[in-house]
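Final report, Chapter 2: Outcomes

The project's central promise was a pipeline that accepts a single protein chain and returns its three-dimensional structure in a standardized token representation, suitable for archiving and comparison. That pipeline is now operational. To close this chapter, we reproduce one record exactly as it appears in the project archive, with the input sequence first and the structure output second.
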Amino acid sequence: MPGDPLTAMTYNKISRNEMQVGRCKTGMGASTTEIYSFDFILASANDLYNNKYYIMITENVNSVGNAPEGQIRQITDYNSNDGHFTTVAFGANVETGDGIKIMHESVALLFMHSAGAAMARVADDSIIAHMLAVAGDISDYDDTTMSLEAIAAAIAGLDLLTDKEKAFLGNAGQLVLNDYFNNVAPDAVPTANYWTFTQDNDATVDVKQNISPFYCLFNGGTGATDDCIMNTIGKRYYDVLIDGVTTVYLKTRIKINDLTGEVGFGFVHAEVASPPASDADDDASHVSTIHCDNDTVRACSSDHSGAPTFTDITAHFADNTWVDVEIRMTATQTLFLIDGTIRATHATDVPPGVVQQIFFATKNTNGITTDLYIQYVEVWTE
């Protein structure tokens, strides 16, 4: 009643979203949607509870612990004349004497199970809605894919790093040339901290970083048989059988100015007595290399026990044309890939589990001053 202190006090409680408790009135008929209680009449203007409030069955007096006890449903209509609540249907009948609790949606939704929009409705633009969805719009929210548990499961199922990326992070791989493009001045030789050089006469190796794409240029020199060789030293050694490693990879992007000249690159046994030459494709050492000479390009492998294995891959190269080359070496085979496609598989004469270094070399052969361009080199293990 207007001006009644008790009524004003009870309205204040509701306005502060405090939960109100009571019981279903004696003699009320059993129903899943029609509930009567006189415990809230003093606080209840007609339709006060419509849509924004919920009823929770706190006690099933005839069967404690069983439905609808613990269930929460939205109030869709309230008649203050007789304490009559109409609700979304409960899962079992509400009966005389059952304990009930009325709560505002801002409180009720913290307790509710998601059993359909009518039973567990989060209001758009509410605090909870903003926690669940961008801009608080939950119209397309799906807890099977968007809940924290679902998101955690999805993240756990991701392979966030490839084996290659893990290898680089764990120092089992090296971006062997890439960093020099940033740290070496134009036309300077790559750092001797990582590379050993052989440059006969006017043969040169230098980084070209003032053009695009960046590359390292090997020039074989103008004198007959002049060598230009760069091979790794120190920690830039790789062993296919060490520390659980199963595969060693070398990936590079190259072009050769003239296939008539001579170029060699790939893996070579780290204990060779002298720098690996461009023709390091024989049985003098354990190798997995690619060798170009006199318009013939061959994939080569040797286990130092007899004649090497060769595969002609000339068809996949052309003068002055960039190609992606990858060599994969395991304990049982060596694969040679050109532009992502396997072009040679050597299951015989495979280098055994010995430490390998990588090298790049050119030679003035057949009257050709050979140029080898390298955009990048990556070596890693898995």
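Archive annotation: The longest strand covers residues 371-381.
This record, like all others produced under the grant, will remain available to the consortium after the project formally closes.
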